[in-house]
Write a structure and sequence with these properties.
This protein is α/β, with parallel strands linked by helices and 346 residues long. The protein has eleven helices and twelve strands. The chain has one domain: Metallo-beta-lactamase, Chain A, CATH 3.60.15.10. The chain has a seven-stranded mixed sheet with strand order 1-2-3-4-5-6-7. It binds zinc ion.
Length: 346
């Protein structure tokens, strides 16, 4: 009798255990969301909302510009040839270019950013936007700011999605710029059809998991492999000058995690990448956080704040401080940890 009771109890404990495992560990999810919310503060609300809230920011809601980013989960090859090829209404995206630091210029649309980093030996373009933005934003933008597009030596692509890389082939062809991309993202790019929007760049400099240092003139840019958003996502740490003073930028190359599903390894890779770039940013004393989407770093708004005269003691609008840069990456890793648990990924 005693033995039967013991067996029944054991069976129910096993069943109870299975039920608990299958459920989302809500308290644990909540604690990671709370950590991310605290890290975001008022500075990184959009990053927090898009990464931490269930089903938020998973495509849609960002207008025509997002069309080319569809299929981001499947990698760059998943995007159709026509993605982003048609120019959307200029009134919805055009933004004038701005000089942000002594040697860094913003060439973005309202939604997506391209940056020109001027060195003593030419210009590095960081991300390129959709093909339809190449002429009005990058080429005309540089000309308006007194930069010569013929001085473009490198185009570095954070990841092979149309909203960041469709201008690369044109800049390579027209100015002989060398295109830099992560190894897996080059592989995805080479599978695109020839008539893909913006064309297909010729295979050029490929960055592996070890990353690389890109030195041009007086500027040394650390390229960090941060796989996650795509398998070959690159992030950067590099110095700029603010009225002659050296300031270090951390650039986050890929953000959304919406398509990871139950793929635990992919979540873990993304989380490890955020910790890696956060540490490199901390070691370099990065006090500026930049992204390729204005909604994450506030670039579209902040470039406008540059026009307001700085009050005594007031900092450059893009200099958020070393602590805030770390908090940005904490938002990314904590939200990803919460989302991984919600997805039941192992
Ligand atoms: Zn993307």
């Amino acid at each position: 009798m005693k033995r039967i009771a013991f067996v029944i109890t054991s069976v129910s404990i096993v069943l109870l255990g299975a039920a608990v495992v299958a459920q989302i560990p809500q308290a644990e999810v909540d604690s990671h969301v709370a950590a991310a919310r605290a890290a975001a503060g008022m500075d990184f609300r959009n990053t927090f909302i898009n990464l931490c809230l269930p089903a938020a920011g998973r495509g849609g809601g960002r207008g025509a510009a997002d069309a080319g980013a569809a299929g981001r989960g499947a990698g760059a090859a998943g995007r159709g040839a026509g993605g982003g090829a048609q120019t959307p209404d200029r009134a919805n995206w055009y933004a004038a270019p701005f000089k942000v630091f002594d040697n860094l210029y913003w060439l973005g649309t309202r939604q997506h950013s391209s940056w020109a980093l001027q060195t003593g030996a030419g210009i590095i373009i960081i991300d390129t936007n959709f093909a339809w933005a190449t002429e009005p934003e990058i080429i005309e933008g540089m000309t308006k700011l007194g930069l010569n597009p013929r001085d473009i030596k490198y185009v570095i692509i954070s990841h092979a999605h149309g909203d960041h890389d469709q201008g690369a082939a044109e800049l390579q062809k027209r100015y002989g710029a060398k295109v830099v991309m992560g190894v897996p993202d080059w592989a995805a790019t080479s599978q695109r059809p020839e008539n893909a929007a913006g064309g297909v760049p010729k295979h050029d400099i490929a960055v592996g998991t070890e990353g690389m240092n890109l030195t041009l003139g007086d500027t040394d840019l650390q390229i960090v492999s941060t796989p996650g958003h795509t398998p070959g996502t690159l992030s950067y740490v590099f110095p700029v000058k603010d009225q002659g003073r050296r300031v270090v930028v951390a650039y986050s190359g890929g953000t959304l995690t919406g398509a990871f599903g139950a793929d635990g390894a992919r979540w873990d890779e993304y989380i490890a990448s955020q910790r890696k770039i956060a540490k490199m940013a901390a070691d370099a004393g990065a006090s500026v956080i930049l992204s390729n989407h204005s909604e994450y770093d506030g670039a579209y708004t902040k470039v406008r704040l540059l026009a307001a005269p700085r009050q005594p003691g007031e900092n450059h609008p893009f200099i958020v401080g070393t602590d805030a840069v770390q908090r940005y990456f904490t938002v990314m890793s904590e939200c990803a940890t919460a989302s991984k648990l919600r997805a039941g990924a192992k």
